[in-house]
């Protein structure tokens, strides 16, 4: 099946950066186009209005908050049947901090990496269920082995930039499920790095 590939491969991006989108996964992706839904434009294909490209590729040279929306690949076959790829929500912020989290679903037992990206390197405080855990000068926190007691709501806080939105961490057997609760009024986000349920989780809150 065709998938929408995002480069850089993350769901959040800084404004004024660039972004590349492509429909990949089949030997012949001819006819597939990148499409999106935004509040301002509703549904639209990659065009000179918001992107440029040919065929199944699309590039945005200077991102803005208006590009925030849902993106996917689509094709209308000769039989007039419509095929769609999985869709992904991409957000673009002019704030100071973004969450570097994977665009595509993470398979059970494979590494999951989340990072707290910003323009500087600051220490970070880490919290679980609203309670302070520890301060890390490098903005990273490691849980040696994930278990059910580690389930909860996590966020990080930079001394100058404020605190991140909250992410729910659910530990289920050999996998961990991340549900990101994003808040546009905040400027900091939390990254979590998971290898397996019995290996360390790395929390990174980097500026």
UniProtKB/TrEMBL annotation:
The keyword ATP-binding does not apply. Transmembrane segments: none annotated. Keywords: Disulfide bond, Receptor, Signal. GO terms for cellular component: external side of plasma membrane. GO terms for molecular function: transmembrane signaling receptor activity. InterPro entries: Ig-like_dom_sf (IPR036179), Ig-like_fold (IPR013783), Ig_Fc_receptor (IPR050488). The keyword Protein transport does not apply. One of its GO terms (biological process) is cell surface receptor signaling pathway. PANTHER family: FC RECEPTOR-LIKE PROTEIN 4 (PTHR11481:SF64), IMMUNOGLOBULIN FC RECEPTOR (PTHR11481). This is Fc receptor-like protein 2.
